[in-house]
């Protein structure tokens, strides 16, 4: 039966501690069962009076798991595993399918069930993770972005390829930082190497199929979804982040271009609603028109429609080009 006890030694206050650390501080098993102590997981405790840390304290906009970060780190360490799957995707800031957004359980991968956590809110995956696929983020051992991408594929239904391509494109893109393109998180080659190390697993066929469709150049998930919708319609492979320089030296660009149809496409997000941006978009469209290209602006309404209207417009344009009408 729990009993009241005096405060814990200063060495144990404010942090999660193991049974061995408690013994070293002179705190025995009976005292660990007192009302002043809370069990975090098998073999780890902390003072009830402690204020748990938050994921926001670590600079993360959304919680990675229901557990506080320091408790998540201890659970991972005591299972001798590595944070993985949804947890790893969040720690790396990767693109999550909407249907995984509510999963705040701590996912841990380990090669066997021994040492498996029995705590509610913790999911153990019996998977071997090579050292090459392990890194550390915010003090937590976690799978690398490449391995997290492979594990995402294991959560998808057979044939559900689009979420994997969206996540893959996001990993290999060169993001804008202060107006300059910077290095990507990873490359298609490194994704393939991690997939090879993962061996056989549920979802490996989905991963291999998705990797064949991952491209460098999509700046957002909607751009990837638009590219896949065009390909699904049988259209030629679009070029990404296409630049135009006119004979007078004027410059503009497009998110996607299908040269065979003489069409360029732009996914215009919320920032395109400002008068200044709309003026730049009008200039952009004029320059492409003068270059003999149909310039199509794509919006969130088209995305909600599955890009069906956009695809029809591009198909009509392609048919006109092949017929010599334009």
From TrEMBL:
Keyword Nuclease listed: yes
Source species, domain of life: Bacteria
A GO term for molecular function: endonuclease activity
Keywords in alphabetical order: Endonuclease, Hydrolase, Nuclease
Keyword Nuclease: yes
Protein's name according to its UniProt entry: Very-short-patch-repair endonuclease
Naturally occurring in which organism (per UniProt): Micrococcus flavus
